[in-house]
Amino acid sequence: MNGILPFMKQKRIIAGNWKLYPDSPEEARAILLAVRKATEKNKHIQSIVCVPFLYTRDAVRIAVGRKRFSIGAQNCAIEDRGAYTGEISAVQLSYSGVSYVIVGHSERRAMGETDDVVNKKVQAVLRSGLKVILCIGEKERDDHGHYLAFVERQITSALHGVGAPDLSRIIVAYEPVWAIGKPSREAMAPHQLHEMTIFVRKIISQQYGTKLAFTIPILYGGSVGPDNAASFFEAGVDGLLIGRASADAQAIVSIIESL
Ligand code: PGA
Fold first, then answer.
1. Which residues are catalytic?
2. How far apart are CA 93 and CA 85, in angstroms?
3. Is the pTM of this model over 0.85?
């Protein structure tokens, strides 16, 4: 050893939220193989692909044995088991081999998920041994800072009853709703995002202390594409939660290559 450490890029989490895409298992497989290959090539990237329930088994098979490539689901039931037609529990997901579950995505909140439901889902995922990608974010901006109080309430209620040891299984994804699903020029500006990463860590540190607040990964989500992905890292985030572009093999590979 000559005492000089090789230059190492900082670890970056790239989580994809496929939403209701793609139509066929063949397309799903092609995207997963492309992400796996790009992740293997770029050693500082940890990728997580959150697929529709139906694709979890195939996806897990593609990810098995890979350290920096894992699979997640996009939702789960509040309960572990019972008479809940059409639901899928975090326990069942844990047996399917996924590692993460997205909880509290704004599109689910828009379907009626309250802060209380989000908290129950967080607890269900933690009970099952899986990890949570907790989505938070204001619907709109105002000049009086109400959006800060809104985000604070989302964080504190989602984490209600979560003990410090479980915080290591939580990733926070800050996704301002007004910036989701837009052309990439309408994504959040890095300086605005910087303010929010500081704010999110402050809220978490009030509850869990500064040390833990600095270990929790914070992702940004909202209109991330190949042309703007790298810019968000100037704002102190640890990674990105990518919707639309993550279900397009070419776009997600370009994003990974750009980081
Ligand atoms: P988008 O979605 O990247 O398509 O804006 C982000 C998300 O909803 O997680």
1. 105, 175
2. 16
3. yes
